[in-house]
Write a structure and sequence with these properties.
alpha/beta; eight-stranded parallel sheet; two-stranded antiparallel ribbon; 10 helices; binds NADP nicotinamide-adenine-dinucleotide phosphate
Length: about 280
């Protein structure tokens, strides 16, 4: 079986590589090297955000790679302080300027912040619809949206988000939000796919990895892609960047998928903030 990353279809007709490279918590000074290495190995999808402070270095690495702009799928996200429509417009201009790109493949609202901005994330979403209409965002989506937030967009907006990027891993399967996405043609992107390393010492996962002759990280990433989700593990370790890319030349059978599924701890397994209450706005 060849190790080839599949492209999957979004609800707007565009496609996205199912495996990408995440750059959260990569220092700006280390970003160009890590992204350059990932592109050399074969990754063609980079997930950044204004909040990560490394958009400029992502753009630099894409340009230095020798690949054309059209060969690399680039996502960024609207930071939490910029939800008001005019701020969102300015922030999107700054993101494109930092990346030195004239369009993004995907632009997301990073967090819904339901307790901020009088609970209004709909007018923010309508500005992302604008970016898609003017061609500067090929696809638009959301991140950390819970079911009621998605229901509200469905009732009050025109465009259905192409993706919802949410925390998901074996300890927090996030099934209710994923099920809403499946039913409404919104693809799930699973952030912290290996729970920032916290699932790597799990005895069940170690047992499965041993039987298959794979690493735990590879088994977990494979579980995500067989669930149909998009993943972009982060690493600055060269051997791990390579290891995480090799997940399309083996398969997990149904029994193994179920064994991993049974590790779900529900809400107790969540590692990051709860989107219903998260209200962080950078100073
Ligand atoms: N939308 C959101 O709110 C949100 C939130 C969080 C993350 N994200 C996105 O999701 C991406 C991935 O999530 P994440 O960075 O939080 O966590 P992650 O990818 O689950 O885990 C990254 C951590 O695991 C280690 N690691 C990576 N591959 C490994 C391997 N094969 N073996 C052992 N350890 C390994 C890395 O260490 P080294 O780097 O030292 O190798 C790093 O400490 C982010 O980069 C970002 O793009 C989005």
């Amino acid at each position: 079986m060849a190790n080839t990353t599949p492209d999957i279809s979004l609800n707007d007709g565009n496609t996205i590589p199912q495996l990408g490279f995440g750059v959260f918590q990569i220092e700006p000074k280390d970003t160009a090297e890590a992204v350059g290495r990932a592109l050399k190995i074969g990754y063609r999808h980079i997930d950044t955000a204004e909040m990560y402070g490394n958009e400029a270095e992502v753009g630099q690495a894409v340009r230095a790679s020798g690949l054309s702009r059209g060969e690399v799928f680039v996502t960024s996200k609207l930071n939490n302080g910029f939800h008001r429509p005019d701020d969102a417009r300015r922030a999107f201009d700054s993101t494109l300027a930092a990346l030195r790109m004239d369009y993004l493949d995907l632009f997301l609202i990073h967090w819904p912040l339901p307790t901020r901005y009088d609970g209004d994330f709909v007018s923010t979403w309508k500005v992302l619809e604008e970016f898609q209409r003017d061609g500067r965002a090929r696809s638009v989506g959301v991140s950390n949206f819970q079911v009621p937030h998605l229901e509200r967009l469905a009732a009050e907006a025109d465009v259905v988000p192409a993706v919802n990027q949410i925390e998901a891993h074996p300890y927090f399967a996030n099934e209710e939000v994923r099920a809403y996405g499946r039913a409404h043609n919104i693809l799930t992107e699973a952030w912290s796919p290996i729970a920032q390393g916290k699932v790597l010492h799990d005895p069940t996962l170690i047992d499965i990895a041993g039987q298959l002759g794979r690493t735990v990280a590879q088994v977990v990433l494979r579980w995500h892609v067989q669930r149909g989700d998009i993943v972009f593990p982060k690493s600055t370790t060269p051997s791990r960047i390579e290891e995480n890319f090799r997940i399309f030349d083996f398969e997990l059978d149904d029994v193994t998928m179920d064994r991993i599924g049974s590790l779900d701890r529900g809400e107790a397994g969540r590692q990051g903030p709860n989107p219903d209450t998260f209200d962080y706005v950078p100073a």
